[in-house]
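[job 0412] stage=complex_fold ligand=coenzyme A status=START
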Amino acid sequence: MFIDKLQKENSYAVGFIQSTIWDNYVFGGERNFFVLICEKNDDPVGYTLVTPGRTAGDFVKIQQIAVRQDARRLHYGSMLIGVIRKYCQLRQRMGARLRCRQDLESNNFWRALGFRQYGTWKKGAINHVGFRASDDINLWEIKLNESIMTFDFMWGEQ
Ligand SMILES: CC(C)(COP(=O)(O)OP(=O)(O)OC[C@H]1O[C@@H](n2cnc3c(N)ncnc32)[C@H](O)[C@@H]1OP(=O)(O)O)[C@@H](O)C(=O)NCCC(=O)NCCS
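[job 0412] stage=complex_fold status=DONE, emitting structure tokens
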């Protein structure tokens, strides 16, 4: 209920994921998708939906993240990313990737957290699952796993 409300309020930024995906793939356990919720005084104030990939070395994908308007700039968003970091270390994931429309303020959030823009999905281009970009979309990534980063250090970034 909380997630659904926040998702709708922020649909301009996070898109819309229909209830069957939430019911079956997230809460029903048919896929390994997971959602993290942060709370203040037992009240939920933000969430992130993550698809963790299949194997060690993959990047997890942040499909959605939103913090309630009245709780922004209090580092709840950063804390959610902090938990994703722990997940990456626990499950041997390389880090996190996401897409963010280039006109959104949240690009400043990703930059501030140390994400790097590794590409742009140009308006009108069709991606690998047949979706057409409605606007220029920034592709962001961050490495969050020191043990895999050591490997990069030894062999050079690809
Ligand atoms: C993006 C979002 C989740 C960030 O959550 P948050 O809890 O407000 O973020 P934090 O407080 O952890 O911000 C960490 C840092 O990021 C930067 N930052 C965050 N929001 C920013 C903004 N709107 N403008 C500029 N910098 C920003 C700041 O440097 C901030 O640190 P500071 O407040 O100490 O200066 C939140 O703004 C949100 O829900 N936006 C609407 C939905 C959305 O855009 N989702 C992402 C789609 S790609």
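The chain has six helices and six strands.
[job 0412] exit 0
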